[in-house]
Specification:
This protein has three helices and eight strands, in the order E-E-E-E-H-E-E-H-H-E-E. The protein is of the alpha+beta class. The protein has one domain. The longest helix is centred in the middle third of the chain and has 12 residues, at 49-60. The protein is elongated and about 35 Å long.
């Protein structure tokens, strides 16, 4: 079985530390142009951003371990949000109908001072 990389994680800040109190923000795009926003707090310890991204992507964007954001393997496009992720974050069928297809998102990590440490969109 071939593994599909949704997107290579890259950026200049992947080895910077992520301070206690930083926030990860994931926003899915609705058809009407507004965002459905989910925030993830990182409060326990300093962590390298590549570890944080690995953890976040493992939990959010992984096909294994819970069918979270399945990928259309022919197009490498996220086309649905899997049930494990939807249940964990209260993403209902009604909300799914409101989201743009294929799924579009912004993901960013912001430090406690409000500085942007990482940004990615699709």
């Amino acid at each position: 079985m071939k593994k599909v990389k949704i997107r290579v994680i890259q950026g200049p800040h992947l080895d910077t530390s992520i301070p206690v109190g930083s926030t990860g923000r994931l926003a899915f795009k609705r058809k009407d142009g507004t965002d459905y926003e989910i925030k993830f707090n990182r409060t326990t310890s300093f962590l390298r951003s590549y570890q944080y991204m690995s953890t976040m992507y493992g939990n959010i964007f992984s096909k294994s371990g819970g069918n979270i954001l399945p990928v259309d393997t022919k197009l490498n496009v996220i086309n649905v949000i899997g049930s494990a992720y939807r249940n964990g974050f209260g993403i209902s069928d009604n909300l799914m109908a409101e989201l743009k297809q294929p799924i579009q998102y912004d993901f960013e990590i912001i430090d406690p001072s409000g500085n942007l440490l990482f940004y990615q969109s699709r």
